[in-house]
Amino acid sequence: MAQVTQPLTDDSIKVRQLNHYQFSWVAGEAGARGTFTLQLVLDEGAWEEVLTLDADDADVLQDLLQNTETVHYDVGRRTLMFGVTSAGS
Questions:
Q1: Do residues 43 and 16 touch, judged by C-beta distance below 8 A?
Q2: Which of 19, 29, 57, 61 has minimal Cβ neighbours within 10 Å of its Cβ?
Q3: In this structure, are residues 39 and 25 in contact, taking their beta carbons and an 8 Å threshold?
């Protein structure tokens, strides 16, 4: 039987599945650009993350999120991973 280091905690899970997301925009100072944020709800609310984005990244990410059925997030590397492809496909 495999030995599993205990305790297994929420912080020890490194990759989580994205279930919901919400873009927000925060106004900047007068004459300055605003800031986009992207809130990620992962593993049915077991983990949440908020990313700060510029307008170009927000646009690209919105397209990817709308057009990809399965998205994962690597918590430690702060990396979104789009889609799942079987090995050998």
A1: yes
A2: 29
A3: no
Contact of 53 with 61, CB cutoff 8 Å: yes
Beta strand extents in 1-89 (DSSP E only) = 15-26, 35-42, 47-53, 71-74, 79-82
| Pairing mode of beta strands 35-42, 79-82 | unpaired
Name the β-bridge partners of 56. none
Place of tokens 């279930």: 19
Q: Comparing C-alpha atoms, which of 22, 60, 54, 64 is closest to residue 41?
A: 22
Phi and psi, residue 70, nearest 5°:
-120, 125
Taking the whole predicted model, whether its pTM rises above 0.85 is answered as: no
